[in-house]
TrEMBL record:
PROSITE patterns: HTH_MERR_2. InterPro entries: DNA-bd_dom_put_sf, MerR-type_HTH_dom, MerR_fam. It comes from the Bacteria. GO terms for molecular function: DNA binding; DNA-binding transcription factor activity. Keywords: DNA-binding, Repressor, Transcription, Transcription regulation. This is Transcriptional regulator, MerR family. Residues 6-74 form the HTH merR-type domain. Pfam families: MerR_1. The keyword RNA-binding does not apply.
Amino acid sequence: MSSKNLLTIDELSQVSGLSKRTIRYYVNGGLLDRPSGETKNARYDASHLEQIRNIKALREKGYTLARIVELKRQTHQEVLNRREIGEPLTVIEIPVDPGISIEFRQEICGLTQPQMIKLAQAFLEVIKSEKDKEAQEEKE
């Protein structure tokens, strides 16, 4: 979808028939991919509508939400398993601290490289903040 075809959560709610609360629940529960952007700037595309259609179809067949999440994870793993030997896998690994690194597998998490980097930077800030708190507490 082009940027003019991206939907706000209100628009996605109208088109899909799901409440905004349900959409957020599905995103947080791993049923629905995260939108691009954050909070009021979050935008959804055709893939989100397709995922909602699939969720509804599976629910009508009696699948629980937990089982749908499990099926989605299995699908991601099958994509990785079908890859040709030697085919590149987009992985970004960011060392954080001795013994700690963050690894993003783009084919699984569905994030763009800039999104992965932004998330890793935020994680690094949290770790630095926690270390600063510990150091401050030790001084006191």
